[in-house]
Amino acid sequence: MQLEKLILGCKAGDKSCQESLVRTYAPRLLAICRRYTKDPESASDALQETFINIFKYVDGFSGKGSFEGWMKRIAVNCSISFQKKYFSKYHKPGVLEDNSNHSEIPDVHSRMNKEDILKLLEKLPKSLYLIFNMSVVEGYSHKEISEILGITESTSRASLSRARVKLIELLEVQKRTENSRIKNINLRFSTGLNPM
Length: 196
Hints:
Elements: H1 3-11, H2 15-37, H3 40-57, H4 67-90, H5 114-121, H6 126-137, H7 142-149, H8 153-191
Helix pairs in contact: 1-2, 2-3, 2-4, 3-4, 4-6, 6-8, 7-8
């Protein structure tokens, strides 16, 4: 079914068009929700809220711009609203000082693929993950982040810096673990033991 017909059907409340839209776009929108919420249950809840809002506000879609982009924005906003409670839990109002040294992130193992990087990001505390994702992945400015989360721009900047410092620490741990594993394999080879 063509997208234009789907949109018109959704505007008319046609259940088959709504179901077709969900089947077509749920995987892509779930991936967005997953990036913001970090756990499968929250991502599913955010996705459900996303489709509720899509069907609720589809009459407001004028046809200008991308419909998929419009839906993605709704998914981001629904996911962020789920994460706001975590952010406010871990951050008190006020300004955080940016005490990081802005050092460069060390050479990430060139073998790391997208899934490896996402797993690494998931190790960040929820509040830092949210700011990092909004800024680096989605491209929000600190002004936009501050308005969406109800924090100051300097708190947003400081949280992003803290997220980067934490990622550097995680990368260093990963690097030490990998070096230790390689050293153990080399030791086993040199002593004639089975490397496995």
